[in-house]
Design a protein that fits this description.
The longest helix has 22 residues. Helix 2 crosses helix 6. 59% of the residues lie in helices and 3% in strands. It has a two-stranded antiparallel ribbon. It has six helices and two strands; from the N terminus they run H-H-E-H-H-H-H-E. With 138 residues, the chain is an all-alpha fold.
Length: 138
Amino acid sequence: MRHAALSAAALMIAALPAQAQIRNAPGPRALEFAAYIFAASNVCGYRIGSDQFEGLLAKQNVQIADVQPRGPFGNRVQTMFTLMSNQMQQNRDQACLAVAGEYGPEGTVAKNVLLPAGQEAPAKPAEPAKPAEPAKPQ
C-alpha cells in the first residue's frame, strides 16, 4: 500500500513539468496566426516583414523562436501550415489577394507583415540628415 502511495506521488511530481509547459503554451490563435503567415509566404511568395511579424506575435505573448520549425511549438505550427498551404494552393490567386489585403503593405489588419518578393520592409524613420559642412579653402 505504501508503495502505491509513493508511486502516485512520483507520477504527480513527474507530471509537473508537462503541466507547466501546457500552462505556458501560446494560445491557439497565436499558433494559427504564425501558420497563416508562413503559409502565405510559401504559397504566394511573399517575404515576411520580421519586425512587424515579431511585434504581432509579441502582442500574443509569443516569440518567433517558439513557432519556428525547431521551436517548442513548431510541430503544431507545421501541421497547421501544411493544411493552410494546401487550402491556399487550391484557390491561389484569391488567397494571395486576401492575405495581401489583410497583412500586406496596405493591410487592413496589420501593415507590412507580408511584403511582395524583392521589397524591403519600410525602414524606421531615420534621423534628419546633418547639413554638409562647407568646403574649406585650400
